[in-house]
Amino acid sequence: KNEVEQSPQNLTAQEGEFITINCSYSVGISALHWLQQHPGGGIVSLFMLSSGKKKHGRLIATINIQEKHSSLHITASHPRDSAVYICAVTLSGTGNQFYFGTGTSLTVIP
Amino acid sequence: ETGVTQSPTHLIKTRGQQVTLRCSSQSGHNTVSWYQQALGQGPQFIFQYYREEENGRGNFPPRFSGLQFPNYSSELNVNALELDDSALYLCASSFEVRNTEAFFGQGTRLTVV
Questions:
Q1: Test the A interface: residue of B26, B46, B96, B106 with most A CBs within 10 Å
Q2: Which end is more exposed in chain A, N or C (fewer Cβ atoms within 10 Å of the end residue's Cβ)?
Q3: pLDDT at position A1 over 60
Q4: pLDDT per residue as tens digits for the range A60-104
Q5: What's the rounded Cα separation, in Å, for the pair B107 and B81?
Q6: How far apart are CA A83 and CA A104, in angstroms?
Q7: What is the spatial distance between Cα B43 and Cα A33, in angstroms, rounded to a whole number?
Q8: Least CA distance to B93: which residue of chain A?
Q9: What sign does the CA torsion over B68, B43, A96, A84 have?
Q10: CB B28 within 8 A of CB B81
């Protein structure tokens, strides 16, 4: 069983829709990261969370430490948001070693 | 642009051969981790180097080895390549070993035939 589970695995949305991607984890963490991976492989860090909520442009990330759950929201989705979104955690007591979910493939249709 | 550069971008090797992949981190990044991402999967942690010493290892055999250099570059070496080693290899570096943002390279796509 993977320590990090994401849902949904695949998501297709119409441009302008509000999108939510969920992440649950089963271990003690020091931080949770939301990452974006475009075709070709490069990964970009979107958020690093240890509590609460963060917002950057149209992206919002929340985390509930007690429930071991995080969500990534995209408001007013756009075709350029199409990518794989990955939730990853760093475990308590370890270094900056990421344990990844399997990712959510998002396609936004114009 | 993350400031982390990997080379080469693509590579084809024959089963049984050895390969060296390289990662050049931002100045001051004393921590680098390497990950293997098979097609359709999330990346898997291979190992981490902190100040040129190995600082943690995932479930990979000893034929996967690494080095980190004082100039913030690092290497991943894989001996006796197997077909299942075909994957995207990613490096990620950070300023410190804990609780900091990581910066990922674009990856090296290795194909073993």
A1: B106
A2: N
A3: no
A4: 999 999 999 999 999 999 999 999 999 999 887 777 788 999 899
A5: 18
A6: 8
A7: 14
A8: A96
A9: positive
A10: no
pLDDT computed for residue A41 by the predictor: 75
Q: How many helices (H) and strands (E) does chain A have?
A: 0, 11
Beta-sheet strands, E only, within B15-106:
19-24, 31-37, 44-50, 53-57, 64-68, 73-78, 87-94, 103-104
CA dist., res. B66 & res. A100, Å (int): 21
Other CB atoms closer than 10 Å to residue B112's CB: what's the count? 19
Q: Chain B interface, mutation test: which of A98, A100, A102, A105, most B Cβ atoms within 10 Å? A: A98
Determine, for residues A96 and B102 on separate chains, whether the beta-carbon distance falls below 8 Å: yes
Which percentage of chain A shows pLDDT scores above 70? 99
Please write the tens of the pLDDT for every residue from B66-98: 999 998 899 999 999 999 999 999 999 988 777
> Which residues of chain A lie closer than 8 angstroms to B88, CB-CB?
41
Instruction: Give Cα B83 distance to the centre of its chain.
Output: 18
Chain centroid to Cα A101, Å, comes to: 9
CB A32 within 8 A of CB A88: yes
**Chain A: nearest CA to B12, how far in angstroms?**
16
What φ, ψ does residue B84 adopt, rounded to 5°? -70, -10
CA distance B113 to A89: 33
